[in-house]
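Cross-check.
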Amino acid sequence: MSIASIIRNAVLLLMLLVAPAWAGETVDINTADSIELAAKLHGVGLTKAEAIVNHREMLGRFDHPDELTRVKGIGPATLEKNRKRITVHPPGDQAQR
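Predicted model, tokenized:
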């Protein structure tokens, strides 16, 4: 087993342990890291969460939750399952921090 596999498994285990604490909470898709996204969004694992973060880093902030469907692997069904959880706060807004 490689170091990368061990780290990935440890992260997934951590997500499973903390996910119940985050269940039902909102998540700002402009500020959350991949672990938080994967834990709070239904149907979004670590790979899709990393794709969300990469999309945001390469193309900039999301202005509306619907823009999440521009990320490969995030379709309308995933968006609808998570619509009530997704927030998009303007830059500098301290509401989620």
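Residues 43 and 78 are 6 Å apart (CA to CA). Helices lie at 3-22, 34-40, 46-59, 76-82. Passed to J.P. for a second look.
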